[in-house]
Structure formats: structure tokens, C-alpha cells
Amino acid sequence: ELPGVDLDINEVEGILSEFKGKFDVKLARDQFVVEPEKGENSKYDAVKENLQEVLSKMNQSLNTFKSKYGCPAAKFWSANFGKEPFQIEVPMEWLGEHKIPS
To answer: Contact at 8 Å (CB) between 42 and 27?
Structure first.
């Protein structure tokens, strides 16, 4: 019995059965991520699809930068992922080779 929880075992089993098959148990167990299975939450699915599109466009932009400026080691950087805009980080050696002050 949990303090402040007034449920019997049948109620708990009923509640837990609602979650069965609605998320990846292995992902939750291994990485502590509870993510709805595709089709369980249409709003979540739409946001996840939009995020994938944005990430794809970012990677296209990064690849364009790498090709245009000859810097295959360039990568995205953010001081606080998710809260600040991304920047493209290039190695110091690349700056020196291209006579760009750091």
C-alpha cells in the first residue's frame, strides 16, 4: 500500500493494461524514454514528423556548407541544445588554413 493512494490491485492492473502496447517497453527500460507508439497520439506524431523535417533541412544546410567551404569536419553546435540557436562549428585548423581570424 502506498501512502495517499487508494487503489486496489484490480484498479492498478486496469490502469497498467491501458499502457500495454502503447509505447516501446525496451526503449523505456534501456534509455528511460517513454515515447508513444506511432498512431497512439496524432499530435505527438505530427510534432515528431515536423522535427524530423527540420533536422533533415539542417543537415542539408550543413552538408552544403561543408561542400561550399571545403570543411568536412564542420558540425552543429549550441551552448544549450534546445534553448539557443544552432551555430556551425569549424576546427581551428580550418580557420588558420583559410586565413580567417579566430
So the answer is: no
